[in-house]
Amino acid sequence: MPRSNRPRGRKPSNNDEDLSYLMSGWRRTETRRGREWNVQPVSATQAAKVYICPGCQLGIQIGVAHLVAWRADGVMGDEADLAARRHWHLHCWNIA
């Protein structure tokens, strides 16, 4: 019988690393119009509600990949900035 070159499956790792960032998307910081913004992508599978995009005032439908943005340099504190986060179409965020 010929030898198989396919990998045999990996053994589970015993690392106790926090991999929650893989489930929630990659958060990054961007500068727009002189302000710092936290930006986090939302995958199509994570998009479970309809949101209104502040860029075009149209709905972001369920199952559509988009991003969430909130101020990173707000004076009211992190909790207030997070409460004021907005969901944007990818295109609308890029042209804003």
Structure description:
The protein has 96 residues and is of the alpha+beta class. 18% of the residues lie in helices and 27% in strands. The protein has 3 helices and 6 strands, in the order αβββββαβα. A 4-stranded antiparallel beta sheet has the order 1-2-5-6. A two-stranded antiparallel ribbon has the order 3-4. A hairpin with a 2-residue loop joins β1 and β2 (35-42). It is elongated and about 70 Å long.
Please describe the structure with a list of short key phrases separated by commas or semicolons.
96 residues; 4-stranded antiparallel beta sheet; 27% strand
Q: How much is the radius of gyration in Å?
A: 19 Å
Helix content: 10-25%
**How confident is the prediction overall: mean pLDDT?**
82
Strand adjacency order, main sheet: 1-2-5-6
Class per helix and strand makeup: alpha+beta
The total count of strands amounts to: 6
Tally the helices: what do you get?
3
Order of helices and strands: HEEEEEHEH
Estimate what percentage of residues fall within beta strands. 25-35%
Q: Give the overall shape.
A: elongated
- End-to-end Cα distance: 61 Å
Identify low-pLDDT runs: 14-23
Work out the oligomeric state of the chains in this entry. Answer: single chain
Largest sheet: 4 strands, antiparallel
Topology of helices and strands:
Elements: H1 20-24, E1 28-32, E2 35-42, E3 51-52, E4 59-60, E5 66-71, H2 78-83, E6 86-88, H3 90-95
